């Protein structure tokens, strides 16, 4: 049984959809960023500010390796996990990569008061421009997140039939 790995922009619905899907198909759910924070006993913004992005990306790879060894799980990756090909190689060993494609306009409409990065539409566009080709390149399946969450979950489950 393969793992299901969700990639996409911050705010595209990876965690919410991943969690709801896990309940429907009886897989365990892991938010890779929260997993890293729990293991390191500190928040990502603290790691970024004190040690920088390169150090964070090393930790991210370390914990994605841990998660990829598990079976029958759904992993919601951090939006930047695709920046390091090693992460994708690790996740593809035992996983199907699904890119949740959601427009910047839709992402920016949501309430992101606890996520400062998502409050600035210019930053979102910059991240989108940097990452969109990586998301498309690494995805085994692309799902457009343009409907109610439950509809999207069913769309993914239907698309995955026979692939797990």
Automatic annotation (TrEMBL):
Cofactor(s) needed: Mg(2+)
Binding site for Mg(2+): 15
EC number annotated for this UniProt entry: 2.7.1.71
Key word Repeat present: no
Domain of life: Bacteria
Pathway field: Metabolic intermediate biosynthesis; chorismate biosynthesis; chorismate from D-erythrose 4-phosphate and phosphoenolpyruvate: step 5/7
Reactions performed catalytically: shikimate + ATP = 3-phosphoshikimate + ADP + H(+)
Record's subcellular location: Cytoplasm
Cofactor note: Binds 1 Mg(2+) ion per subunit.
Entry keywords, A to Z: Amino-acid biosynthesis, Aromatic amino acid biosynthesis, ATP-binding, Cytoplasm, Kinase, Magnesium, Metal-binding, Nucleotide-binding, Transferase
Entry binding sites for ATP: 11-16, 115
Record: residues binding substrate: 33, 57, 79, 131
Single biological process term from Gene Ontology: amino acid biosynthetic process
HAMAP family xrefs: Shikimate_kinase (MF_00109)
General function of this protein: Catalyzes the specific phosphorylation of the 3-hydroxyl group of shikimic acid using ATP as a cosubstrate.
Family per similarity comment: Belongs to the shikimate kinase family.
Identification of the protein by name: Shikimate kinase
Organism: Leptotrichia shahii
The organism's taxonomic lineage, starting at the top: Bacteria, Fusobacteriati, Fusobacteriota, Fusobacteriia, Fusobacteriales
Gene: aroK
């Amino acid at each position: 049984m393969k793992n299901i790995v969700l990639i996409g922009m911050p705010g595209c619905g990876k965690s919410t959809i991943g969690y709801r899907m896990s309940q429907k198909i009886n897989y365990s759910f892991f938010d890779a960023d929260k997993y890293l924070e729990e293991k390191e006993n500190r928040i990502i913004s603290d790691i970024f500010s004190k040690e920088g992005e390169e150090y964070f990306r090393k930790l991210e790879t370390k914990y994605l390796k841990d998660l990829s060894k598990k079976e029958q799980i759904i992993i919601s990756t951090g939006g930047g996990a695709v920046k390091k090909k090693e992460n994708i190689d690790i996740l593809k060993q035992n996983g199907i990569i699904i890119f949740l494609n959601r427009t910047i306009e839709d992402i920016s409409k949501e309430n992101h008061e606890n996520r400062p990065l998502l409050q600035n539409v210019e930053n979102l566009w910059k991240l989108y421009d940097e990452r969109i080709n990586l998301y498309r390149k690494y995805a085994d399946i692309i799902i457009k997140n343009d409907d109610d969450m439950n509809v999207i979950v069913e769309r993914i489950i239907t698309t995955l039939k026979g692939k797990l």
